[in-house]
Amino acid sequence: MHKTKIVTTFLTNSDKILLLKRSQKVKSMKNLWAGISGIIEGDEEPVKRAKIEVYEEVGIEESNIKLIKEGDVILIESPQYENHQWEVYPFLFSCDNREVKLNWENSDSKWISVNELNDFTTVPSLDKVLTRLF
Fold this sequence. Notes:
Elements: E1 2-13, E2 16-22, E3 33-34, E4 36-39, H1 46-58, E5 65-70, E6 74-77, E7 84-95, E8 106-112, H2 126-131
Parallel strand pairs: 1-7
Antiparallel strand pairs: 1-2, 1-4, 2-3, 2-8, 5-7, 6-7
C-alpha cells in the first residue's frame, strides 16, 4: 500500500470554518470542497507544512493564525488511485478575519458552520478529518 502524507487544515473565525473548492487546475479531487491541504515534503514537520499551505492557498500569514488543535493522524483510502492511502495530519487554526486571497489551487471559498459540512460535496472523509478537531 502506497501512502502519501498530507496536512488538512481548517481555519476558524467566530464559530465558522473555512472551506475551499478545489479548482479544475489541480491534479486530484477537482471541484470538491476541502480544507487547506498540501503534501508533506520529506522530513518536514506537519505543522510547518500546514502554516505554509495556509499562506499559499489563502494568503494569511503565520503571524495572523493561532494553532488551536492538532488532531490524531487518520488514514483514508483513495478512491482515485488503486492501492493508495492518504495519511492525513489534521490542524485547526484560528484567524482574526475572514478575508482570503485564493491561489490557483482553489476556485471558491465559504465560511460555514461545522454542521453545514454535509451540504457540500467534499473530498473523501473530510467529515472524519474535521471530527478529529472538534
